[in-house]
């Protein structure tokens, strides 16, 4: 424990945590969810749920990390003197291990598309984004496995450098660039003829499209888009100093997450509406619909390449935190073992995710309860492991941890927010998580 990791600055901690939260959920899932379930109505529900549910849960996970100051497969036992509760940390460890494999498949697709578009830009291949066929890409076993391996290799390289030189430095570069590139795409999108129709589609509340299912998706989106339930945020908070203000940090991350989700919608909707497409197709939105949209723009390949960089940054900043949690737990926060553990963990993730990569091709016929192996990985993490992790942490904080110790960790409380936050965590949020858990399974 003498060689434990630590953030060099609060800015680095906030940007890295924001990067962990701002993943494919904000950049990819939010736009098409909003498109299906009411536009501005979904946005309003998402904002309310993020503030009422997501922010308190994020503050809770930061409080646990700040109080425990250790790796997550030990932190629960340390704080409660009940070692068996470390099973919550192991649940999170399993969740991020599987989730990294899931992310690496999509990350591999992004890299393949970037290479294809780059070859067009420098003249190696003929111009035209319509030449890239999504179905041909995802069913090519060699291509997808190579892309997946490259994504994992990049993630591993950053994590091997450590918290300060790897995670913090990468986040300080990638997060500002993500915002800059996203604003460029939004500006381009809004200049297209017919863009205002797309703007109304994302911002105007369509009450007729609101449903119970859409409301639950908005609740789930506010929950999962902040990486809650995997103990990843607890790991990042454990690297912070005792002086860290958890409320300010959590609020900053929530605000950045909301802004990126909204900007992603503003980037996609005007462009798709301008060219007569509907942004309601998950993976197809990024890999099938958007190439057609950008193909009809001037300098479309350039702007699509920038858009792919955005998605790569979003995927990488999240995958870094997923690998980091495994490294933290298996090195027991001792940096002397960081590099070999990062290599071994990356190799294992690569091996277990190959079947998921092949589930769109040679293993497409193999189903579990009607789901491909890729979909199974997503379902198990999003619908089972993450809610269980969040529920376990909420019960530990609300029922077992000392209230006065939590108040100290909460920090200066000028507006008397501790009491409502504490009772929300103690009584309300466990019920909310159970409802989300049951409904997601149904």
Automatic annotation (TrEMBL):
UniProt keyword Membrane present: yes
Keywords: Membrane, Symport, Transmembrane, Transmembrane helix, Transport
Name of this protein: Transporter
UniProt record similarity statement: Belongs to the sodium:neurotransmitter symporter (SNF) (TC 2.A.22) family.
Membrane topology field: Multi-pass membrane protein
CDD domains for this protein: SLC6sbd_Tyt1-Like
Keyword Lipoprotein: no
UniProt source species: Staphylococcus marylandisciuri
Superkingdom of the organism of origin: Bacteria
Signal peptide coordinates: none
